[in-house]
Design brief:
The protein has twelve helices and two strands, in the order ααααααααααααββ. Helix content is 65%, strand content 4%. β1 and β2 form a beta hairpin. The chain has one domain: Vanadium-containing Chloroperoxidase, domain 1, CATH 1.20.144. The two termini are 47 Å apart. The longest helix has 34 residues. It has 344 residues and is mostly helical. The protein has a two-stranded antiparallel ribbon.
Length: 344
């Protein structure tokens, strides 16, 4: 439409210039000469009125189009995942760690705020779960419940195949769910500061926090609330005494081992470190059943709990730092079993 209007105006302007004129040229200072006949006057008036009406209609159409465009709601940006509630406190963007005392103490203050905010968010997380989160929890409950039905049989089989070799493996690897896990976090933290690597420092910070918070949740809340007797005390039977000092469910060593392993796995590039971390955590779980201090369902619950805490903290900190969440692999219940779900 606009191009047609432009061509029309151009033709009106250019027509007197290109038209054949047998009359003598008119002086620029003289007044304009009216058309030579009544017919020409009528044709000129018609062309002017036609051009005016055409341009007025074009202007009205443009105004209506702009109004419609402004009134049309703009599409909202696509949201890839729901924000966590309560929202994590904002943190400085990734940068090389500083060895200056003032910057170090600033990091300590940020760490203290982290522990307080993350503890509250971790405890209140079920209040903000969506359907997908409850599906994951349901899948975990199915796995743990199924193992619990077979605990006595599995306990008997583990003790049947227990040997000097399995005892030696247990003696060498059980500490990955205790002191070795803490030492691993400290090592990552020190190396990160020494080599001024932000990734290594964050891995150490989150490893220590995940181990601390998962142990706090496991030892002081779940164990005391559930009060399951250990297999060597109940002779393989499932006995719950809520509020007692019995601390079989869930396994504290498995919880801490998988919390540390999940942080290292998410923060590491490639497959080597994640494989080593999860292998060590799995050995810890087998060690606790081999030593008959936990049932298989105890270590399974600890593995799920520790992994959930570790990945929860890493994802929360990534949001606080304005980074993209990492892919997650979760188990979801389906008809006839479980399925692995990958979220990007």
């Amino acid at each position: 439409m606009k191009s047609v209007a432009v061509l029309l105006i151009a033709s009106l302007v250019a027509s007197p210039l290109l038209a054949d004129d047998t009359t003598s040229p008119v002086d620029a200072s003289s007044p304009m000469v009216s058309p030579r006949s009544a017919t020409e006057r009528e044709e000129a008036a018609f062309m002017v009125s036609f051009a005016d009406s055409f341009l007025a209609a074009e202007a009205n159409m443009d105004a209506a189009g702009s109004d419609d465009q402004s009134a049309e709601p703009q599409p909202s940006p696509q949201v890839t995942e729901e924000p966590q509630k309560p929202a994590p406190p904002k943190e400085p963007p990734p940068k090389r760690p500083s060895l200056k005392p003032a910057d170090f103490w600033k990091d300590v203050k940020i760490e203290a705020k982290r522990y307080v905010a993350d503890s509250f968010a971790l405890v209140t997380a079920p209040l903000h779960w969506n359907v997908a989160d409850w599906e994951r929890a349901g899948g975990a409950a199915i796995v743990i419940g199924g193992l619990m039905l077979e605990d006595r049989h599995l306990d008997h089989e583990f003790q049947k195949w227990r040997s000097t070799f399995t005892n030696r493996v247990s003696d060498a690897t059980t500490s990955f769910g205790g002191g070795y896990g803490v030492n691993t976090g400290v090592a990552f933290l020190i190396v990160g500061y020494v080599f001024r690597s932000w990734d290594l420092r964050e891995t150490g910070r989150e490893t220590l926090e995940a181990g601390f918070l998962s142990n706090l949740l496991d030892k002081w809340i779940l164990k005391r609330a559930i009060g399951r007797e250990r297999p060597q005390v109940s002779n393989g039977r499932t006995v719950f005494r809520p509020g007692s000092s019995n601390g079989s469910f869930p396994s504290g060593h498995a919880t801490e081992a998988f919390a540390v392993a999940s942080v290292i796995a998410v923060r590491s590039k490639g497959w080597v470190l994640p494989t080593i971390a999860y292998t060590a955590a799995t050995l810890v779980a087998f060690d606790r059943v081999n030593d008959r201090v936990h049932f298989p369902s105890d270590v399974a619950a600890g593995a799920i709990l520790g992994t959930a805490v570790g990945r929860f903290l890493v994802a929360r900190h990534r949001r606080a730092q304005g980074l993209k969440p990492s892919p997650t692999v979760t188990l979801v219940p389906i008809r006839g079993g479980l399925a692995a779900k990958v979220d990007f």
